[in-house]
Amino acid sequence: TRRFDVVIAGGGAAGIATAASLLKRRPGTTVAIIDPATEHYYQPGWTLVGAGVFTPEQTRRSEVTLIPQAANWIRETVTGFDPEHNQVRLGDGSSVEYTTLVVALGIKLDWAGIEGLVDTLGKNGVTSNYRYDLAPYTWKLVQGLNSGTAIFTQPPMPIKCAGAPQKAAYLSCDAWRRRGVKDAISVEFDTCTPGLFGVAAFVPALMAYIRRYNIAFNPKTRLVKVDGASRIATFEKTTDSGTETIERKFDMLHVVPPQAPPDVVRDSKLADAAGWVSVDPTTLRHTAYANVFALGDCAGTSNAKTAAAVRKQAPVVAYNVAATLDHRAVGAEYDGYGACPLTVERGKIVLAEFAYNGALTPTLPKWLLDGQKPTWLAWFLKEKIMPLLYWDFMLRGREIMVKPKVKA
Ligand code: FAD
């Protein structure tokens, strides 16, 4: 059995960022990253692919160019965790052994969780920005629609980038408005959540756009079935008196799939009651196994599941993993920061930044960028700066503005 100081399960945003940060902090550490994927995606860019701003290729790079030189890439699937014996099982039947483990497997998109959806995705007007190959279809549909009904849906929480379902609605409406066809298209946003956004401070700015685009906002409404051929979406709406079933005809349907912890995590000893990796929200260390850490979408923490959160979590985990290897205390602390750039129109964003319990944590001073208002500066950051920050800083372990807070 191969043995490493650190085994990282998953080479997405969180896995690569942690490996890079760790190798900078503690050169000479033996690190293995386990991920079968040969391509790596900048998923936050998919919202802009769906709006015709980015090409799909701008959001994709080959994994081999991102794995840090000093790390070992094991191109296998993680099939099991054995934290009692410090081992991870792989798809080829072998195991790897670790001194410390970092779990960064992301979130599972449960496309099959909506009846009929899988058969009609990518045709019959049914699309989703949650897949690389489908985001361009969103833009194609937006360009092709001149009248009719467009429906945008959001599944139950938690999901990655909770704002993404409504971002798709706003950017589509903006494109229709600019083309002069908006009044001929009736738009609805159906969400399982009781409100538009989880942090109250950002709701007024978003509600203003719901009104501006004349979007019918339907809370507590769950998409349960899609009949692509006849273009009918079926919803269940929770009311005071029970559940009501509603059928709607659509010309365009943008679906965000239900989301869940990865099966391999849920079925392991690492999982909490809901199936996510059970970690301390501050140190990101496992609640039962002191040499196990988790970050990113698979972690059982209440922050917004975003790449922005990963940017702050990775240095914390890297610091605490290094401390564990050196028999020091895990002193680095994560405050729950996450960010959701809500693209309310082309050229303007409401930049929601917040930490645990909805505490507002703006990066820039309010006079420069007021996150509770739509600003062009936030759009500029999203379009020009954040991709750069992701590829060339976060994934390379270059940490600007993310010094982890360390307890003495
Ligand atoms: P991922 O980056 O998804 O990586 C998970 C990795 O694990 C993958 O490489 C996968 O191949 C690997 N893996 C899975 N299962 C296994 C297995 N069994 N064995 C081995 N490897 C495995 N975030 C923002 O900050 N701002 C935004 O505006 C934003 N917008 C978004 C819009 C959309 C449409 C989407 C889909 C996401 C958006 N996000 C945004 C969220 C962001 O992309 C994720 O939060 C981030 O990628 C999480 O990183 P991660 O490493 O946890 O998961």
Describe this structure in words.
- The chain is an alpha/beta fold.
- The protein folds into two domains: 2-107 and 261-335 and 384-406, 3-Layer(bba) Sandwich (FAD/NAD(P)-binding domain); 110-259, FAD/NAD(P)-binding domain (3-Layer(bba) Sandwich), CATH 3.50.50.60.
- It has helices spanning 13-25, 46-49, 117-120, 135-144, 164-179, 203-212, 263-266, 307-325, 376-393; strands at residues 2-9, 31-34, 39-41, 60-62, 72-74, 78-82, 87-90, 95-103, 108-109, 126-127, 148-154, 185-191, 215-218, 221-227, 232-239, 242-249, 252-254, 259-260, 292-294, 332-333, 338-345, 348-354, 405-406.
- Strands 1, 2, 5, 6, 7, 8 and 19 form a seven-stranded mixed β-sheet that branches. Strands 10-17-11-12-13 form a five-stranded parallel β-sheet.
- Helix 1 (13-25) packs across helix 8 (307-325).
- It is globular and about 65 Å long.
- The relative contact order is 0.15.
- The model has no long low-confidence stretch (mean pLDDT 97).
- It binds flavin-adenine dinucleotide.
- The site of flavin-adenine dinucleotide has 37 residues, from helix 1, helix 2, helix 8 and strand 21.
- Flavin-adenine dinucleotide binds next to helix 1, helix 2, helix 8 and strand 21.
Quick take:
The protein has 408 residues and is α/β, with parallel strands linked by helices. It is 24% helix and 27% strand. The radius of gyration is 21 Å and the shape is globular.
